[in-house]
Amino acid sequence: MSDTLIGVVLGGKYRITERLGRGGMAEVYLANQENLDRNVAIKLMHAFLVTEQDFLQRFKREARAMAAMNHPNIVSVYDFDVYGENTYYLVMEYISGGTLKDRLASLAAAGERLPLPEAVRLTLQVAEALDYAHGRSMVHRDVKPANIMLNERGNAILTDFGIVKLVGGQSMAYTATGALIGTPAYMSPEQAMGAPGDARSDIYSLGVLLYQMVTGHLPFDADTPLAIVLKHVNDPVPPPVRYNPDVPAAIQHILLKALAKSPDDRYETAGELALALRQADLSQKAPAEPAAPVPTTAPAVHTEVLPPPPRPFTPTPAPPTPAPVPAET
What we know:
Elements: E1 9-10, E2 14-22, E3 26-33, E4 38-45, H1 55-68, E5 77-83, E6 87-93, H2 100-109, H3 116-134, E7 148-150, E8 156-158, H4 163-168, H5 189-192, H6 199-215, H7 225-234, H8 249-258, H9 270-279
Antiparallel strand pairs: 1-2, 2-3, 3-4, 4-6, 5-6, 7-8
């Protein structure tokens, strides 16, 4: 798909006016809904991802489930349809404030972090949205800054519920073509290992997001997607105070619990995480990360007796030349 769609009218009423962005699963366009004269966002899914024969049925089911949700921190879905033979699209509420990803990138470029109270507020809003959705058997599976819009009031609006499940079928880690589904930097260990994931997987991803907002760093980063997901599976979480010594102790505790390797060790529900955030004391700093232990004894040194160095060469003096014997007369 390209900008040749500009000016096209989808479904007889959605006139596309601008392309807003492109991701691994879809392109997003701004459109005008002509019968109501309002702006909407249209997400057109990439045709190459539509591989299963039952995709249309799953698309309808997931679109209806998304449209049935009504929460102030979840984007509203208005409509769905198909363009051409296999380009399925969703019509959604248009949020004009940009994404949290854009906001964090702007702060990082200036060498700044999101203020702690704002980071907690946004995380709380997303946690409440997830708790609402999980109660309706909707798991997001791709919580990340690019899927969180900020409205004109600066509130978080979670988008793309059901999209990963829709594209990936029952396996959330990979599509039928082998493409990685989800975002490695925010992917839970169980998703990285190919499991579908559940509500606690969303809690892990939200923990990664909160970690990033309060420290300015991702907990795990590497040069390749595979290396990143392996770190999620195997490596301990770096203490947040390593990157931000002002992280409150309560927030550090919340982060380490949300980012537990085993889903059983995390918050059981997003509602529990939201409650912990509401009750968090932000005034007490976490203790500094312990320094690396200093050895108390000198390391063993291997000694070896070396042979004495060779003596310098001194030439032996030649014997004296005998005096000549006088001839007899």
